[in-house]
């Protein structure tokens, strides 16, 4: 087998950006090198990992399964590089880490697992709150550190923030939807479709904001706090939605495919990062957690998600 960590990195980059050219740019390498790495993986495993189209690439079912394992392998490699540098692995302590609903489900768990492997003696008390409550508790000292959506934050210069992931928002729609045949899709095009609204964290507020900034209003036919419900109803053709690539999966729980497409109008990304009190600063244990996040929060070093052109 000719596969190395380099092949895994190239595969994850293509999966997360949706385009070979953008993956190559993010990894500071050439497009032919990325293409050859993907070809090697597909040949050695005997499966097709991507569906190709003029707009970019999307994961096959086999590719989606492999992506989860590839990300785990790369995270383990980061752990291995960090471990010899942690001369205080026997450090003992505790900290309270807050997160929002979406972050708890899609982002924070790998960070916690990595931290616990490197610093098993530091106990992390994980709590989930809405973003305004997280800000209040960070400022009051009840929470040492938070991982949450960075926009909109209301505490201004009283808090410190550090971006970990910027995830592009795209249109989710059934795999056979007519809009996929268009060269570009605008918010006005989306307004004409039945809209499925995610009503958790700040998703609804953010969605209404960018539609209304464009002088539009989404035709909301269903609101839900369940991401899996959104995938199911979109895949079944009951409507469309706009959500970030971080929470996108190409298959519903029932195994029905859904697609994601770029939006021509300006739509803000979903930014996730660290939040702590400026006046209180970081405790020793929180600082160690921040260092681990910085070293391994994203495979592409900041360019984590982007849309295919």
UniProtKB/TrEMBL annotation:
Record carries keyword DNA-binding: yes
Signal peptide range in chain numbering: none
Query: Which Pfam families does this one have?
Result: HTH_1, LysR_substrate
Source domain of life? Bacteria
Record GO cellular component, one term: protein-DNA complex
Keyword Nucleotide-binding attributed: no
Q: Which UniProt keywords are present, listed alphabetically?
A: DNA-binding, Transcription, Transcription regulation
The UniProt record lists the HTH lysR-type domain at 3-60
Gene Ontology MF term list: DNA binding; DNA-binding transcription factor activity
The record's listing under PANTHER family reads: HCA OPERON TRANSCRIPTIONAL ACTIVATOR HCAR (PTHR30346:SF0), TRANSCRIPTIONAL DUAL REGULATOR HCAR-RELATED (PTHR30346)
Q: Which family does it belong to?
A: Belongs to the LysR transcriptional regulatory family.
Q: What is this protein called?
A: LysR family transcriptional regulator
This chain's source organism reads Metarhizobium album
Lineage from the top down?
Answer: Bacteria, Pseudomonadati, Pseudomonadota, Alphaproteobacteria, Hyphomicrobiales
